[in-house]
Amino acid sequence: MSVPCVCVGREAGEETREALADADLIDDAHEITVEDGQLYIPVTDASAVPARYEVVSYDVPARETQTMPADVVDFEPSYARVGDIAVIDEDDPERARALADAIVESALPVDTVLNRASKVKGDLRVRDWDVLAGDRTETVHREYGCEFALDLAEVYFSPRLATERHRVVEQVDSGEQAFDMFAGVGPFVIPFATRGAEAVGVDLNETAIEYLRENARRNKVADRVTAIQGDVRDVAAEYVNWADRLVMNLPHSADEFLDTAVDLASDECVLHYYDIQHEDDPYGPGEEAIRAAAEPQYEVDVETRHTVRSYAPHELNVVLDVRLVRT
C-alpha cells in the first residue's frame, strides 16, 4: 500500500535512516524498500520530517512478522515514545488499559506504559502519571544523535517537539554563545554544545539540572555546558550582554521574562520565542511584547513566524525567530 516515505539515494540511506530513527519517525509497520538505487523509508508523520528530506507516497510492503498496537485494539491508537517508555493520554480507564496491553504485546521496543494523569503544573513543570505497565518513569531518550537521561515524573520533556528543536539546532554555529532560559534536561542545550557552541541552561527544577549535567557528560560536551539551578531573573546579572542566541520555551508565560532576555542579549542576538495564542492572531501578541521590551534599545527583525503544533481547539503553539541588533 502507498504510505508516506522519505526517498533518498542508496548511498545516503543509512545516515538518513539513523536520523529518522533518532527523531522517532520511522513507520515500523512497513518495510524499508530499495528500487532503482533509491531507498524508500516509511515514516509515521510526513509533516514532522525535516525539510531537507524528500517525502513521497510510495507502495511499500507491510511487515508481516511484527504486531503493532493498531493490530490489537479496535480504535486508532495514539502514543508517543520517550526512550523505552510509551506515553499515552486516555481519559477512559478501560481504553487506557486496552491500549497499554496492546503496546506491551506489540513489537514496539518498550516495556513501560504511562498514562497522563494531570496537566503540566507548577513552576517545576511536572505532571502526574498512572503507570499501566512496568514499574518506572526513568529512561534514556535518543534524539537526532543525542542521548537524554530523564525521569518523566520529575521533569518536563516532550518528544513531540523533536523536529522543532532540530530546526533551531541546525541554525547554530560553532563558537556561538547560546542561552536556554528554561532548559529542562537539555534538549536544546546539549545539541547546541555538540555543534560547538558554548551553552548555558537555567531551570528552577533541581532534578532537571542534575539530569542536564549528566546529559552533558553522557554526550561528551560537559566542557561547553554550564547548568544553573534557579530563577533566570536572578542569574541574568552574571550574563549581561552575553547571549548570541536565546531560547524562551515557556509558552504560557515567556512574555514575563522578556526584560531579562533583553539584558542577556549581546549586541546581535537571535531570540527563539515560544507562545500559545488564539488561531485568529497567533503571532501578533508575541511580536508586540518583544518590541515593547526590546525597542528602541534594539532593532527588532522577525525572521520566522512558525506554527509548531496545534495546542488546543483554536489555540496554536507558535515560535518567533527574532533577530535583535543593538542600535
From TrEMBL:
Gene3D superfamilies: 3.30.70.2580, Met-10+ protein-like domains, Vaccinia Virus protein VP39. Keywords: Cytoplasm, Methyltransferase, S-adenosyl-L-methionine, Transferase, tRNA processing. GO terms for molecular function: methyltransferase activity. CDD domains: AdoMet_MTases. One of its GO terms (biological process) is tRNA methylation. Pfam families: TRM5-TYW2_MTfase, Trm5_N, TYW2_N_2. It comes from the Archaea. It comes from Halorientalis brevis. Residues 79-326 form the SAM-dependent methyltransferase TRM5/TYW2-type domain. This is Class I SAM-dependent methyltransferase. The keyword Coiled coil does not apply. InterPro entries: MeTrfase_TRM5/TYW2 (IPR030382), SAM-dependent_MTases_sf (IPR029063), TRM5-TYW2-like_MTfase (IPR056743), TRM5/TYW2-like_N (IPR056744), Trm5a/b_N (IPR040601).
